[in-house]
Amino acid sequence: VTSVNPLTVYFFSECYVRIAANEYCLDEISDRFTHLTLTVIMKHHPKFDADDEYWRCQWTQDKYRSLLQEKTGFDVWTKKVLPAMKHIVVASLQSVTEALPAPETSFCSFQVLGYDFMVDDEFNV
Questions:
Q1: pLDDT per position in the chain (125 positions), as tens?
Q2: Residues 6 or more apart whose Cβ sits within 8 Å of residue 69
């Protein structure tokens, strides 16, 4: 964010995707490997392997995009997921612009913000 008035946001073009080690289900709500995706937790899974693309539980954006393309037959990342992510970022920033600091020297400063998103099985963000 380089400005809050007007709101000016630069969206970093590359991201990574964290996946849970176990398939999602509500039967065992306390299973950290099913419901959390933090690397600090995943590295304790018995099958975790930092050198294995699947078992390191973190994919590149290209890997995830390819998986989505294969599953849907179209570029759902570009058509649905990414635009929804951008919309969420802008909407969330618009909702707090009055609370964001606007120092007199804001013309030469910026803020870096990180966002986490969840994508469901219908590719809603």
A1: 777 778 888 888 888 888 888 888 888 888 888 888 878 888 889 998 988 878 888 889 999 999 999 999 999 999 999 999 999 999 998 898 877 766 555 566 677 788 999 999 899 99
A2: 75, 76, 77
As a three-state string, the secondary structure of 73-105 is: CCCHHHHHHHHHHHHHHHHHHHCCCCCCCCCCC
Angstrom CA distances, 4 to 10, 91, 95, 102, stand at 12, 13, 11, 7
Residues 33-54 as b or e (16 or more Cβ within 10 Å = b):
bbeebeeebbeeeeebeeeeee
Whether 1 and 111 have beta carbons less than 8 Å apart is answered as yes
> What is this structure's pTM?
0.79
Residues composing the chain: 125
